[in-house]
Every structure is written in C-alpha cells, then in structure tokens.
Write a sequence for this structure.
DNA sequence: CCTTTGATTGACTGGTCAGTCAATAAAAAC
DNA sequence: GTTTTTATTGACTGACCAGTCAATCAAAGG
C-alpha cells in the first residue's frame, strides 16, 4: 500500500536506525541491510533514497551535529545573565539528547570516519569551531584572555565523551559538574 | 632460506605494520593481507603466528600501551622533585613515541574496538586507571583533594589526543603546555 | 480509464576478506 | 643421512556485503 510522501519519513527512520545500529555494534561496520531492517524497510530502499552507505552515514552525522547545535542554541537563548552562558553551554553538551549511549558511540565513530572522509572531518571541525567560539564568548565576561581556557574546555568536553564511550559508571551528570568545576578553576586561577 | 628464530622478529614487524596500516587507513578495516605485505610476509604467516586478526589487533594495542607505560615510567624516574612529577607525567603523555600520527590514530581506533571487544576495553581501562593513579599521586603534593583534578586532567589528555587525531595544526607541543596550564589553574584555583 | 509517478522489493552480482591447508624448503637433531 | 622441527607460501573456500535492476503496486492526474 504505497502511500505518497514517504521519503522524509523513510529518511528520518533510516537516519535514526543508523545511529541505533552504530551504537549497538560500536562500529561503522554496520551493513545497509541491518540499518534498513531496523528502519523497517528493504536495503534497496535505503540505497534508493540515499544513493549509498557513505551518504547514509553522512546524513546520520549531520543529524547528530544539528541536534547538538539546537541543544546549545536553546541553552544559550535561555541563559538569563552573561554569567549563565558558560554553565548553559556546558550543561547543553551533556544534555540527554546528546549525551546518550548510542549518540556517543556514533559520535566517536564519526571521529574515526573523519580520518578517512574529508567531509566528515569538515563537519567535525565546524562543530569544534562553534564550540570554541561559544566558549570564548562566554568566558570573555570572566577573563581577559579567554582563548586558552576555551581551548582547554573544548578538549575536556571531548575527553569526557571519550570516557563515556568506554562505558564505565554514571558519568551522566558527574561529567558536566567536573567540567564546570574546571571552568571555575580556570577563571579563578587565571594568570 | 628459512632461518630459525624468526618468530619474535616477525611478530614485532607485524605489530609495527599493523599500527602503520591503521594509521594510514584511519580505520580498523585493514586487511590481514595489507598488514602482512607491509611487514614483508604472506598473510598466511600472519595467521600462523597470531591465529587471527583479533589477536594481531590485540598485540598492536598491547604494544602501544606498553610503550606508553615505559615512557611514563621513565619520566617519573627522571623527575627530581615531587613537584616535577606532575609536569613529567604530562610531558610523557605528549612525548614523541606516543604522540605521533600513526599511534594516535591507532589509539583512537582502539577506543572504538573497545566498544565491541571486552579485552580491548579492559586494556584501555587499565591505562586510564594508571593515569588516574599517577596523576593523583603527583597532585597530592599540591592539593588536599587531588582526585577530582586528576579525573579532569586525565579526560583532558584524552581530549587532546582526540583533537590531534582530527588533524589540525601543530598541536605537538602546544597540547602539553595547555594541559600544564590547566593543571596550574586547578591547583591555584582549588576550592 | 490509462498513464505517469513515487514506493517498494526480491533476486542477483562482483568483489572482498578471514581463515584453512597441503606443500616446500631449510635448518637442527639424532 | 634420515627425521623432526620451524618457516613460509600459493591457492582455495565460504561468508558477507554494497550496489544494481527489473518488476510490482497503488495513488494521482488527466
């Protein structure tokens, strides 16, 4: 019973399924067949809409990054005072929609993909650039030379993701607080 | 002309070739054939000595981790004063033998492997545990409650590796200095 | 109606790769 | 000098998988 206008739904389902499969497998070596099955369609349809596995992966990556962007933008908009902005950014980075097993695993795998696929590298560099810029702005209220601290906090957030990917225990909130504590120390201990 | 006692040499060459291939490909999807060719032997011989691809990967991982351990141990032994220890550990983490394109790439890929292979996860957790322990000890000279700072510095070092894996510019020495600056700030700004 | 268009699939293909095995050859041991 | 051990490989196989294609089905448009 082919209904019309399926494309957007199928695309979304496939993207979601891709993240789920990557998370479950802990690897980019998921077959188009697995992804398609999880999305409830045939692998041929996945190829039909996306063209190839590379495009499916790319779409999944864009989805994660855009969801992340939305989270940060919302947090920034909700920040009452300039001082709030720093905490808002850090909290957004560990919000549920981003800091979740499947997403973290996919995100880690995208770093690997970036070593091979220039497009993936470009996307990741854009993400890093935005994070740096956001942190720099937020830190400027607190310190004269915010750049080094922004760099450190950006790397620290990535490091927390990496450790979360390794599994371990209840990072979920601890991570955000540790990053905030580090931010406080950087502000207080500025040279 | 089969000489005797080749096994150790072949194993070492294959391990080295594995790291090289992973670094070149930016992925664990390197074939046993590629690894073997780089090591100058047939893929059958690689299977003969290691049993399978999983064991080759595991051996490469152990090699990187043990080289890393040696670097840290040497740095710690060379530290004159207790205050030196912290800088020594951080410097060792960014020493040439560890902080090199191929090795970083392989190390990142091992984090991915750890999501699927419990043995890889175990090894990585041992590495993290040692780093935490070393940092905690070194920080105790400077602060009453070193644990949170050690946690943060460990994650920060991992984050720096992750960013180095993404390529970018001359991290090589900048990274170490940024981590040291962060350590100073944590010590100075302790609550 | 009938035809165009979008949705959807099963079946097929060409290529790749981990792992096996029997064979060869040289050193070592007896 | 024969046997054992170690080193080494080419050739094979069984599985898996991305991508293709022709066919089917139903809604929409005329």
């Amino acid at each position: 019973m082919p209904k019309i206008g399926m494309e957007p739904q199928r695309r979304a389902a496939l993207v979601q399924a891709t993240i789920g499969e990557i998370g479950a497998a802990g690897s980019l070596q998921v077959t188009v067949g697995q992804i398609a099955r999880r999305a409830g369609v045939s692998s041929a349809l996945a190829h039909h809409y996306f063209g190839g596995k590379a495009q499916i992966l790319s779409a999944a990556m864009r989805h994660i990054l855009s969801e992340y962007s939305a989270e940060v933008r919302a947090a920034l908009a909700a920040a009452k005072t300039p001082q709030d902005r720093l905490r808002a950014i850090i909290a957004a980075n560990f919000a549920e929609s981003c800091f979740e097993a499947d997403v973290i695993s996919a995100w880690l795998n995208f770093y690997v993909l970036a070593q091979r696929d220039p497009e993936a590298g470009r996307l990741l560099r854009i993400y890093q650039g935005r994070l740096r810029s956001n942190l720099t702005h937020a830190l400027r209220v607190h310190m004269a030379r915010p750049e080094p601290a922004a760099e450190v906090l950006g790397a620290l957030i990535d490091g927390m993701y990496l450790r979360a990917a390794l599994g371990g225990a209840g990072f979920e909130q601890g991570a955000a607080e540790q990053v905030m504590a580090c931010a406080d120390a950087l502000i207080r201990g500025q040279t």
